[in-house]
Amino acid sequence: MDTEEEIRSHLADLEADDIKVRDAARFQLAHMGPAAAPDLIHQLKTDKEPCRREAAKILGEIHEQSAAADLVEALLDDSIGVEWAASEALIKYRRAAILPLLEGITRHFDSERFRRGALHVLHALDQRDQLGSKGKEVLASLEGLGPFTSAAWAAERAIEYLKSENVH
Q1: What are the pLDDT digits (tens) for 139-149?
Q2: What is the dihedral of CA 158, 162, 164, 168, to 10 degrees?
Q3: Which residues of 30-53 are buried (b: 16+ CB within 10 A; e: fewer)?
Q4: Are 133 and 110 within 8 A, CB to CB?
Q5: What would the pLDDT profile of 53-110 be if each residue is shown by its tens digit?
Q6: Cα–Cα distance, 31 to 28 (Å, whole number)
Q7: 54 near 26, Cβ under 8 Å?
Q8: 131 exposed, middle or buried (CB, 10 Å; 0-12, 13-18, 19+)?
Q9: What count of Cα atoms within 13 Å lies in the side-chain half-sphere of residue 19?
Q10: CA distance to 95, 96, 147, per residue, from 34 (Å)
Q11: CA atoms within a 13 Å half-sphere pointing along the CA-CB vector of 94
Q12: pLDDT at res. 150
């Protein structure tokens, strides 16, 4: 069996009713690492909630940078389980999650669900000393009682700062 066939087989097992089968599939896909990332990113968009949730969990183990933006978008998922798995995965990405998350805040500042997920991720990263001063400003704006747009503006300033910092 080639790698693609193996990945497809394990992805199908994520739908199994048997938790041992799902756990084994999750382990195998995480062990495959970045090779499985494109298929897992695709799973984040499937109509099957358990597959979206499991894909987010696995992507959190893999830490594939190309998946960070898709995990940010999964914070909008209608399923609280998927939203939670995506936020926990982003926390595992540590600093690599910050820029995609800030960009998500600028796009989805009007979504209560998204703000809740972003707040959870930023708070956890702050607890792990992963946020700089600009990230802390975004966290404070999400925690505050001000207008939702204040979080978007704070995120925009943080993005500009992070991008200028990477240039130097």
Answers
A1: 999 987 666 67
A2: 150
A3: bebeeebbebbbebbeeeeebbbb
A4: no
A5: 999 999 999 999 999 999 999 999 999 999 999 999 999 999 999 999 999 999 998 9
A6: 5
A7: yes
A8: buried
A9: 0
A10: 19, 16, 39
A11: 6
A12: 85
Residues counted in the chain: 168
Q: What is the pLDDT of residue 168?
A: 47
pLDDT in tens, 114-133: 999 999 999 999 999 999 89
Q: Is the pTM of this model over 0.85?
A: yes
CA angle 160, 164, 168 (to 5 degrees): 170
Return d(Cα 22, Cα 15) in angstroms, integer. 7
Alpha carbons within 13 A on the beta-carbon side of 8: 5
Alpha helices, DSSP H, located in 14-132: 19-32, 37-43, 49-62, 68-73, 80-93, 98-108, 112-127
> Tokens 């909630």, residue?
49
Q: What SS3 class is residue 110? A: coil
Q: How far apart are the first and last CA of the chain?
A: 47
59: closest CA among 80, 75, 79, 39? 39
